[in-house]
Amino acid sequence: QTSTPLLNWEEYLRDVESTHSQLLQISYQLRQSFSHLDNLQAEFESKYQMQKKDVESLKTYLKDIRDTSQYASAKEKIETWSLDLKQMSSLMPVSGGTFVELFLGTTDLRFRRKQQRIAFKTQYELYKKRLGPFFVWMTFLCFLFERNRWLHMLLQLFLAYYYASLAIRENILRANGSNIKSWWIWHHYLSMGIATCFLTWPDSTSYAMFRNRLHIFGMYTALLQILQARYQMARLYTLRSLGKAGEMDVANTDSTPIHWGSSMKLLMPFVIVGQLIQLYNCIFLYRLWRMFPVESQILVASILFLSTFAGNFSTTMYTLYEKTRG
Amino acid sequence: QTSTPLLNWEEYLRDVESTHSQLLQISYQLRQSFSHLDNLQAEFESKYQMQKKDVESLKTYLKDIRDTSQYASAKEKIETWSLDLKQMSSLMPVSGGTFVELFLGTTDLRFRRKQQRIAFKTQYELYKKRLGPFFVWMTFLCFLFERNRWLHMLLQLFLAYYYASLAIRENILRANGSNIKSWWIWHHYLSMGIATCFLTWPDSTSYAMFRNRLHIFGMYTALLQILQARYQMARLYTLRSLGKAGEMDVANTDSTPIHWGSSMKLLMPFVIVGQLIQLYNCIFLYRLWRMFPVESQILVASILFLSTFAGNFSTTMYTLYEKTRG
Ligand SMILES: CC(C)(COP(=O)(O)OP(=O)(O)OC[C@H]1O[C@@H](n2cnc3c(N)ncnc32)[C@H](O)[C@@H]1OP(=O)(O)O)[C@@H](O)C(=O)NCCC(=O)NCCS
Ligand SMILES: CC(C)(COP(=O)(O)OP(=O)(O)OC[C@H]1O[C@@H](n2cnc3c(N)ncnc32)[C@H](O)[C@@H]1OP(=O)(O)O)[C@@H](O)C(=O)NCCC(=O)NCCS
């Protein structure tokens, strides 16, 4: 290939030149499209906001009227507009919420290109899949090297980072129409808090009494997360092949009741056991704190475990209720 | 306004209806533009990559030839193409580098719309401006409440978060053509490490010997950062009014030598003193570690301070050299 220019140099140069001018033209078109898009986007945003206000005020106006027969056709129209607006909202800018803003500032995080949306979700899934085994092994090492506080701290640092990253990504996914319940994001915030408690817990007698339980629980959770990730992948695959989800389109936010599947049945006992361990940790830590009341990390961690248990359990039960009902 | 529909209901409804159909049409156009853009972008990316390879191989081919007179015109052409490609690179997707990928996964972080680019940079500047005074006060409180280890840990947590956020944002800015030197981003990574050391340092005798120095140094740094932010804002303003920077265009990456200004002269002594304090911290911590060799946090922090000093000092000196030469 590198010797080609030697043979017919002139021709090769001419080829490259013509490709170059084509490229220049495309880049020119691209820049034009972007500036065209900028204007169109601005126009759309202002019109959308106006229309939303109008339709909303029409709705509230109609709500006060008893004699609806006369307004039946108007009501129907307004319903359609309202639905249209909901669909169009996927073209409006979106913020990732406070937590994401803490890291990135207020920027528009809407994925307007389908490709981007799918890529981001895939990356998120890959991330969980890759780090699952890592945490299993790392926690196992911590369990083996029971006295190596440095290793334990490294694990807790990783965990704090891991949950922060999950929370950022899930906030962005949610902003782009994922149905993930906000509790699971809160769960990550609390887990960051728990990791911080264990990171700053001095290497004391009380820590020695808890560390093995901590790492056994950690291994269990890491294994469970691998199971969960498999379930989520399978579920996503089913939904995708049904042509319903996986694209996080606001258009199909209406929940798709998947029937109580066999994989879910398999997963549930493990999930419940994991949550009961959280409750156990909460009680154990509370008792430990009564023995060492100076180390307030213990109490904070206990309270955080309680909140995690309460939220996880109730959200899982609610999800089950929704699914078996549908 | 809300009573308008009562008066001429029919007319109002018709108005909203016509706006609605306009909006629908714009949203349709918008979706079309996006899908058109998707295709154009894909075409551009593949052509760009091919052309880049060709131009590069032409360049290396010409380099080997002694008798350049014959190829003078070809050489000129290739130079132009090369420059064009550099300009066009601002339309190619870009990754934020490993650190950003750890948080967001591999996504395209190129700001193609000027508006986005400027908004992101402005947010970054606002962020630094807002958190400056916060850190001054917080560090002052830590100095006052000398024995409140909880408060100190909170400060170190905030600092770790702050430097992570700065590093993420600056990586994104750099990917979009900012001239920020990679050292300053490394500085943030090291600072995260320092904050982690102080966060996990047990509340021991050695800590008691260092904490006041730590907080006095912290206050100095926080104040210095406010000064620096002012300088950066002023510099950006000057560059913007000269029409050179602030848009982070790869097109104008060639550095703009601003002459050794009076604000820079004012800033420099404070910067140098700050860096010397870092060296002092390094030495002090090293001696402390010799007294308490069990607490390895002290040694790690000392090494991190040494690296910070070395990098900061040499980068600042190099920047000064560049600027006074220009
Ligand atoms: C109960 C459970 C199996 C239901 O999963 P599901 O069938 O996906 O639930 P939903 O239909 O409500 O999911 C809606 C969305 O939320 C996401 N989601 C559900 N649970 C999630 C979780 N725990 N973490 C992150 N995302 C979750 C789904 O991926 C889906 O996203 P999408 O709209 O982008 O496709 C799941 O929530 C779960 O495993 N919970 C237990 C977690 C736990 O308690 N862990 C700690 C124990 S140690
Ligand atoms: C020396 C110094 C004043 C030069 O600043 P400058 O004139 O902006 O330098 P440059 O021209 O090289 O800047 C190029 C880019 O890097 C950015 N930049 C420079 N120094 C930076 C820093 N310390 N942190 C973040 N960004 C910085 C500029 O904003 C500019 O960005 P842009 O291309 O998006 O406009 C500045 O780097 C500085 O204050 N350094 C000392 C920092 C320090 O040591 N702090 C710790 C002491 S306790």
Short synopsis of the structure:
The first copy, chain A, has helices at 4-7, 9-63, 72-88, 98-104, 114-144, 149-175, 182-200, 205-241, 262-291, 296-325.
General description of the model:
Two copies of one chain form a homodimer. By secondary structure, chain A is an all-alpha fold. In chain A, 79% of the residues lie in helices and 0% in strands. The first copy, chain A, has a domain at 110-325. Chain A has helices spanning 4-7, 9-63, 72-88, 98-104, 114-144, 149-175, 182-200, 205-241, 262-291, 296-325. The longest helix of chain A has 55 residues, at 9-63. Mean pLDDT of chain A is 88; it is low at 1-5 and 249-255. The interface between A and B is large, with 73 and 74 residues. One coenzyme A binds at residues 173, 178-181, 184, 221, 224, 228, 232, 235, 245, 248, 267, 271, 274-275, 312, 316, 319 of chain B. One coenzyme A is lined by residues 173, 178-181, 184, 221, 224, 228, 232, 235, 245, 248, 267, 271, 274-275, 312, 316, 319 of chain B.
Secondary-structure map:
The structure is a homodimer of 326-residue chains.
Chain A: H1 4-7, H2 9-63, H3 72-88, H4 98-104, H5 114-144, H6 149-175, H7 182-200, H8 205-241, H9 262-291, H10 296-325
Helix pairs in contact in A: 2-3, 5-6, 5-8, 6-7, 7-10, 8-9, 9-10
Outline of chain A, from the CA principal axes? Answer: extended
Bound ligands, named by name, code or SMILES = coenzyme A
Radius of gyration of chain A using CA atoms only: 27 Å
Biggest interface pair, residues each? Answer: A-B, 73 and 74 residues
